[in-house]
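User: For my dataset I need records formatted as: sequence, then C-alpha cells, nothing else. Please produce one.
Assistant:
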Amino acid sequence: MTHKLPLATTLALAALAATPLTLSAAPLSNADFSQGFTAWQGVIDDGVPATVAPADYIGNFALSATPGFATLTNDATYYGVTLFQPFDLSGAGAVGILLSFDFSWSKTSGLLDGVSASLLDDVGNPLLDLFPAGLDTTLPTNSGSTTADLSAYAAQSVMLAFQLSDGDFNEQDSFTVGSITLDTGDVPLAPTGALLLAGLTLLPLVRRRR
C-alpha cells in the first residue's frame, strides 16, 4: 500500500479544498525565485490536499543555497508536496515557445516515491510531461536539464507544476528545480505590417540613389 497520488488528482482535489486554486491571466513570473515564492502556489497532502502559500511551509518549500533554485521536501505530516504556478500563454507567439529548467532529486525509494514536472490545463488536467523522453524517474537520485516545446498550447491558460510524492512511508525525499526560463517566441507580423516594415527598410536606399 502506498499513499502516493497522481499529480492531476492532487491538484483537482486541492481545487475543492477550503483554499481554492488561484488562477492567473499573467505570464510566468518570478521563475528565478528572486522574490522568494511570490507568484507560486503550493499543495500539501496529508490525505486531504490543500493549497497553501509555500512561504508558510518552510519545512516543505525552501529556497536553495544556489540562487534561482527551490527545493520541495516531504515529511511525516505532508507526504505529497507540489509547487505550481498558473500562467497565461495568450501573449506568446504561435511557434518557438520553449520552457527550460534544471532538476535534481533524492528519494529513499526510487520505485515507490515519485517526482514529476508537468504542464497542466487551468483545472489541473495533464497536458504535457516536461521531463525528457526516456528519463527514468524510478532512479533514487538523478539530475539534469530539459527543454520542452509548449507551442501547441499557445493562447491557453496553463499551469507549471512540480510534484514530489512519497510511497514507501519514509518521508525523507527532496526534489530541486531551478534555472527556469520561458522563451515565448516571436509573434509574426501581420502581412500588412511586414510590408510596411519592408518599405521602411528600403527608404534609406531610395534616398541615397537620389
